[in-house]
Amino acid sequence: MSIPTGPLPPSCGLWLFARSISCRIFVPLLKASDGVHVDPENLLIGPNATLREVAFAVGTVLDRDGIHAVLCGGSAATFYAPEAYQSEDLDFVLAFNTEGSVVKTALASVGYRLKNGLFVHDATHFTVEFPRGPLAIGNDEVEDIVTLHEAGQVLRIISPTDSVRDRLNKYAAWDDFSALRAAVGVARGRRRHARRTFFYET
User: What is the CATH T-level fold of the domain 10-193, as seen in this structure?
Assistant: First the structure.
């Protein structure tokens, strides 16, 4: 989907009612792949970057430019349960009215450019998309957004519970068994890592 070149549609104003939640999130701790070089001023995405690393890099540069964007869909399921489901693109839903040019500038700082409606990168196969908001699962708008912090980076993402709901909704609507596997993977991952916490909202 192409990103709007002007302000987002008025429906995105519904995001004014969204809230960040303070909670503990249980996510598998993955070994670093050295796919993203991190320093306080510069993020460099390399060919070995995982979806998780790219998500943090993109979330961070968007946040630095005052852009409120939330990772959702299959990419959120991959973030929580990479062993169960692998997405090749990252879906972020934008909050409020955001100029497309501002998003382009932010993503250009980590090497992404707009091509045929997708943000692509020369060093990684992961693409970035911005589906039209507001963020919802079926007709149910998502109100609780989890904010994760790691090594000076930030990422807003739907909760594991909403990720399961989202994948189950896709399975029910499209008979998509990969979505069902993703839902089960996220649910099992939360249970398996229930005693390990290293992400939190501040």
Answer: Beta Polymerase; domain 2 (3.30.460)
